Automatic annotation (TrEMBL):
The keyword Hydrolase applies. Belongs to the helicase family. UvrD subfamily. PROSITE patterns: UVRD_HELICASE_ATP_BIND, UVRD_HELICASE_CTER. Keywords: ATP-binding, DNA-binding, Helicase, Hydrolase, Isomerase, Nucleotide-binding. GO terms for molecular function: 3'-5' DNA helicase activity; ATP binding; DNA binding; hydrolase activity. It is an enzyme of class 5 (isomerase). SUPFAM superfamilies: P-loop containing nucleoside triphosphate hydrolases. This is DNA 3'-5' helicase.
Length: 682
């Protein structure tokens, strides 16, 4: 006979013994849920147990996670299990629940009822405006770029956010920052003293402005309630007594403010159910403190630890590779993932000379697997940073493989790439109406004084005379400065477009130089400017492979069609951070080189190790790792993480070339002979 009500049998019976024990446990509980071990199912069961087994009311359970998507998924699962109206009333994200708490008592933040919430873009715009309004002599000179440029505004916004995440008020900021500077100096670390001191002054002005406008930014939503919980006993009692249980998902990602908020909100009930995995803590750059999950059992007297180690996603070889890499993280809470899904296939490890060779080989292999019956959406390419996607996209485009980039803009969707192609189009046929959209896009980039009124006059002139917009510039009635600037622009693009026997890549490079487009981005002296110049360099290099303008335009058009087709069967491309929480039968992991991953400089090496663990455990059936000897002008060697995978769990080269592939043909329209595959170009 089960030790729980029969009504909970549909929820608890399918669980493993350790999942079931964890879900039924009360008090301070840490569920250490390894990748693919059913953490959401366990958390859902934990909610169900508290309501149906222990008689807690849904209105008295606080359940928090990091994203609206995760909160909605949790709500749907609980509703499916318990029925309508049984999900916790206080179920949402940290910011969402903090906003509810702050709206109930806005005076703790010196706000009034009905306050506005400023999103990240609004907050950045306010910081930029406030900086520009300050005495220029008080704004520090940045190491790179100009005062009040995009990079400096972003840096100051991040520092204000850092202060708020650490619960530092504007009044306390001067002393806190002095302590920060002293600590870094004592540790012989670089510290931007002038920049931090300026950030303090800016923070004080920024926060005063928010209060004047009866507004809060995202960081305020949690900071002020947490400070009130810390410093006001009656407030803390009032809120902690509301809840009989506090439950937190993705606990490895909490920052200081979030940890204190959870601790105080659960003070009265002494019920804190935390689910997470320290081996998947990959957001230290966002303020996450891995020590909170690793010290949980020591922090709370009587706390219990449950380890979920049975993986339901991946095969044995994949898990053993991941286990071996993460085992070298010296601070981890020990656990070893295992599976009953069988050995599966060994990790394929490949090396190439150049990134283009690597990308072409991956695309070809994807084509072969598709021909064997693997759906495109069951294949993913996961890489360390976004800029690695370009060569991969090119290879997929050449192979006519449909793809979608998750969480980033595809190469040909980027504004600078579209601008550059518009320059080419305009230069090719300035007197044809076919170039009108290109003219609209770049005639005022960089700025030439072309506003809406002047453009309207040009459009009317073009319509009246049957001219292209670029040609209408010569006869339209315009302010003299605007007319002179546009005539010079027209002369430049027309002249470059008529140079005979000029390679397409050289024509593009010349256009970008002589129109001032390169200069515009160099003078931006910001991260955005650097990225733009990198993308333009990539495009000029790419243009070397084309002789005709229409070919590269068609190539780009095929790539930019994908956003309208999302949701269809297509290969998934994403960074390692974006891949967390996802799974795919076939995972390709390119660019595992020391210079890229773990990378050089100030990266957190152990966090890079955890990224390797996360990446490998996205794979369900097959994982393929590749590296090159030369990438983006720099020689490279394979990542040390590859050698940490035991030899018995990896193979050098493609398994199919060694006769070891266990993949089965699915039949139907995708079945092909080897000869047919060769004929298809795969």
């Amino acid at each position: 006979m089960s030790a729980y009500p029969q009504s909970l049998a549909p929820v608890l019976d399918p669980l493993t013994p350790v999942q079931r024990e964890a879900a039924m446990a009360l008090g301070r509980v840490l569920v250490l849920a390894g990748a693919g071990t059913g953490k959401t199912k366990t958390l859902t069961a934990g909610v169900a147990c508290r309501i149906q087994m222990y008689g807690m009311r849904p209105s008295q359970i606080l359940c928090v996670t990091f994203t609206n998507k995760a909160a909605q998924e949790m709500r749907e699962r609980i509703t499916t299990v318990l029925g309508e109206g049984q999900a916790p009333f206080w179920l949402g994200t940290f910011h969402g629940l903090g906003a509810r708490q702050l709206r109930a008592e806005p005076e703790v933040a010196q706000l009034h009822p009905g306050f506005d919430i400023r999103d990240a873009d609004d907050a950045t715009a306010m910081i930029r405006r406030l900086m520009k309004a300050m005495d220029p002599d008080t704004v520090p000179e940045p190491d790179t770029g100009k005062k009040c440029d995009v990079r400096q505004v972003k840096t100051m916004g991040e520092r204000i956010g850092h202060l708020k995440e650490n619960l530092v008020t504007p009044e306390a900021a001067p002393a806190w920052v002095r302590g920060l500077i002293e600590r870094r100096r004592a540790a012989r670390q670089m510290v931007d003293v002038e920049g931090w001191e300026f950030a303090v002054r800016l923070y004080q002005i920024y926060q005063a402005t928010l209060r004047e406008q009866n507004a809060a930014d995202f960081s305020d939503l949690l900071m002020w309630p947490t400070l009130a919980l810390m410093n006001d006993r009656s407030y803390r009692d009032r809120w902690s007594q509301r809840f009989t249980s506090v439950m937190a998902d993705e606990f490895q990602d909490v920052n200081r403010a979030q940890m204190l908020w959870l601790t105080y909100m659960s003070e009265y009930s002494r019920e804190l159910f935390a689910v997470g995995d320290d081996s998947q803590s990959i957001y230290s750059w966002r303020g996450a403190k891995i020590g909170f999950i690793r010290n949980f059992v020591r922090e709370f007297d009587g706390a219990r630890l449950f380890k979920l180690e049975k993986n339901f996603r991946s095969t044995h070889h994949i898990l053993q590779a991941a286990n071996a890499i993460i085992a070298r993280d010296p601070g981890r809470i020990p656990k070893t993932l295992f599976t009953q899904k069988g050995d599966g296939q060994k990790i394929e490890v490949l090396s190439y000379d150049y990134a283009s060779d690597e990308a072409d080989a991956i695309a070809a292999e994807m084509g072969r697997r598709a021909a064997e019956g693997v759906a495109w959406h069951d294949m993913a390419m996961i890489y360390r940073i976004n800029r690695l996607s370009r060569s991969l996209e090119e290879a997929l485009l050449k192979a006519r493989i449909p793809y979608e980039i998750i969480g980033d803009v595809g190469f040909y969707h980027r504004a600078v790439v579209k601008d550059a192609l518009a320059f080419l189009m305009l230069a090719a046929c300035p007197d044809s109406r076919q170039s009108d959209e290109a003219f609209r896009r770049v005639a005022n980039v960089p700025r030439r004084g072309l506003g809406a009124k002047a453009l309207g006059q040009i459009e009317q002139e073009a319509q009246d005379r049957g001219l292209s917009l670029c040609a209408a510039v010569t006869t339209a009635t315009l302010p003299s400065k605007v007319r002179d600037s546009l005539l010079a622009f027209r002369e430049t693009v027309s002249r470059i477009g008529q140079i005979p026997d000029m390679r397409l890549c050289d024509r593009l490079d010349t256009l970008l130089k002589e129109t001032g487009y390169y200069t515009m981005w160099r003078e931006a002296a910001s991260e955005e400017g650097e990225t733009a110049l990198q993308n333009l360099s990539e495009l000029v290099g790419l243009a070397e492979g084309f002789t005709q303008l229409q070919d590269i335009l068609e190539h780009a058009a095929l790539a930019t069609a994908s956003p309208n087709e999302r949701g269809r069967d297509r290969v998934q491309l994403m960074t390692m951070h974006r891949a967390k929480g996802l799974e795919f039968p076939h995972v390709f992991l390119p660019a595992w080189e020391e210079t890229v991953f773990p990378g050089m400089g100030e990266r957190n090496y152990e966090e890079e190790r955890r990224l390797a663990y996360v990446s490998l455990t996205r794979a369900m059936q097959q994982a393929t790792i590749s590296s090159v000897g030369y990438r983006q002008g720099v020689s490279a060697r394979p990542s040390g993480f590859i050698e940490e995978i035991p030899a018995e769990h990896r193979v050098t080269g493609w398994l199919r070339q060694q006769g070891q592939s266990k993949r089965r043909e699915a039949g139907g329209r995708f079945r092909h002979t080897a000869a047919a595959l060769d004929a298809m170009g795969f």
